[in-house]
Specification:
It is a single chain. The chain has about 280 residues and is of the alpha/beta class. The protein has two domains: about 160 residues, Periplasmic binding protein-like II (D-Maltodextrin-Binding Protein, domain 2); about 110 residues, Periplasmic binding protein-like II (D-Maltodextrin-Binding Protein, domain 2). The chain is about 40% helix and about 20% strand. The chain is built from twelve helices and ten strands. Strands 1, 2, 3, 4, 7, 8, 9 and 10 form an eight-stranded mixed beta sheet that branches. Strands 5-6 form a two-stranded parallel sheet. Helix 1 packs across helix 10.
């Protein structure tokens, strides 16, 4: 099956899969995804319409992007929804994931305590803010190979800072929500996607100290796991899920998700092929 079939043809293919599944139970897909899509509740809104339309159940495993890509390599998932473009391209070049599509975007925020002891908010830019934070700390990192940690480490490098030199930097090894809560408890700085920050905002005293820098753009892609590795070995069903995520219905849902609760959507719909040159924008 060609990777470049449009959403309508692939959703039709899902109907064929459903018909073929009669008599052997409903098909099930394993979706490995970043914790942010789970912590914000997006998947609870996004996936039920797909299952209702196709009869395909989706089992969600929310881990860091690095762990999700490892699941793809091992064949423990059928689809991944992740946000580390450079790491994704490396996996695609090895043939572990195929047919990538950009699904949505938002941004990362550099957060800190309201009194901003490092003076990061007045630094005049993201990289200088990081240099100031490195001298004083504390800084809480996810330390879990997630897309957020990958971006954090890249930013330290760009700022000319060795992460191990950051004063009182600690790693949680946990998802974004748990990391935010610990950073708040420590009165520390941290990097977070804006969606998870807004979802946890009522439980936090942390505030954005730097936002809006192009380096903080955060792009999410969906990929089909190489059919030779897939957990369910059901390529048509996996492709139909990716096709649904770029369909007008799903994109409209993404575009309004969170608006009623937070006064603004948590994600911006953004579809395109995830080609070799695809980078945050």
């Amino acid at each position: 099956m060609s990777r470049r079939r449009g959403p309508t043809r692939l959703l039709a293919a899902a109907g064929i899969v459903l018909g073929a599944a009669c008599g052997r139970g409903a098909p099930e897909l394993v979706l490995a995804t970043t914790t942010s899509t789970q912590d914000t509740g997006l998947l609870d809104s996004l996936l039920p319409p797909f299952s209702a339309r196709t009869g395909i159940d989706v089992k969600v495993i929310a881990v860091g992007t690095g762990a999700a890509l490892e699941m793809a390599r091992r064949g423990d998932a059928d689809v991944v929804l992740v946000h580390a473009p450079e790491a994704e391209q490396e996996r695609a070049a090895r043939g572990e994931i195929v047919g990538g599509r950009r699904i949505m975007r938002n941004e990362f925020l550099l957060l800190g305590p309201p009194d901003d002891p490092a003076g990061a908010a007045g630094a005049g830019g993201l990289l200088e803010a990081l240099r100031l934070i490195a001298r004083t700390g504390p800084f809480v990192s996810r330390g879990d190979g997630s897309g957020t940690e990958i971006r954090e480490l890249a930013l330290w490098r760009e700022a000319g800072v060795a992460p191990e030199s950051v004063v009182r930097r600690e790693e949680t090894g946990q998802g974004m929500g748990a990391t935010l809560l610990l950073a708040d408890q420590r009165r520390a700085y941290t990097l977070s996607d804006i969606a998870t920050f807004l979802a946890f905002r009522d439980r936090l005293t942390l505030v954005p100290v730097v936002e809006g820098d192009a380096r903080l753009h955060n792009v999410y892609h969906a990929w089909v796991v190489n059919p030779e590795r897939q957990a369910s070995a059901d390529r048509a069903a996996a492709e139909s899920l990716v096709a649904y995520l770029v369909s007008p219905d799903a994109q409209a849902l993404i575009g309004r998700f969170g608006a009623a609760r937070f006064g603004r959507p948590l994600y911006v719909p953004d579809t395109a092929d995830a080609g070799p040159g695809d980078r945050p924008r």
